[in-house]
Write a structure and sequence with these properties.
The chain has about 140 residues and is α+β, with helices and mostly antiparallel strands. The chain is built from five helices and six strands; from the N terminus they run ααββαβββααβ. The protein has one domain: Beta Polymerase, domain 2 (2-Layer Sandwich). About 35% of the residues lie in helices and about 25% in strands. β4 and β5 form a beta hairpin. α2 crosses α3. The longest helix has 17 residues. The chain is globular, with a radius of gyration of 15 Å. The N terminus is likely disordered.
């Protein structure tokens, strides 16, 4: 994974920030979210929430948060997301936490997937932390 160069022009503003976030076209984010949600559902991911954080953070446009009942299920959920999005041409930039599988983070640039074991999700409560984002209905 190479470093992303920042635009040096003064006019860059939020457009350059968006270019830094991901290598995908910004219009791809809703499609990535839809595919990731379906992949999580296929592996029985529970309490799937999609939060639009584009107006409150430059980290990404969307967070997808889901939980599973045990570490093996959480790994299966993440494996399926990576496979489905990979087949669609979306490459995961980084995966963190796969070994312990209590909280696995998948960075797709414009979208970040958080897959938790249920107890850890309740403990970290990302929905509360990111409450300034907009909860997205599942028909994205």
């Amino acid at each position: 994974m190479g470093e992303v160069k920042m635009k040096e022009s003064a006019e860059a503003g939020s457009a350059s920030v968006r270019e830094e976030k991901g290598v995908h076209n910004l219009a791809d984010a809703p499609e990535m979210v839809r595919l990731a949600r379906e992949a999580l559902e296929d592996k029985k991911g529970q309490n799937i929430k999609i939060i639009d954080i584009s107006r409150v953070s430059v980290l990404a446009d969307y967070f997808i948060i889901a939980d599973g009942s045990n570490p093996n299920q959480v790994q299966a959920m993440v494996d399926n997301v990576e496979e489905v999005l990979g087949k669609a041409g979306y490459e995961c930039r980084q995966i963190e936490g796969y070994g312990t599988a209590n909280w696995i983070l998948m960075d797709y640039g414009d979208m970040i997937v958080h897959a938790f074991c249920r107890e850890d999700r309740l403990f970290y409560d990302l929905e509360r932390i990111w409450r300034d984002g907009k909860l997205v209905e599942t028909d994205i």
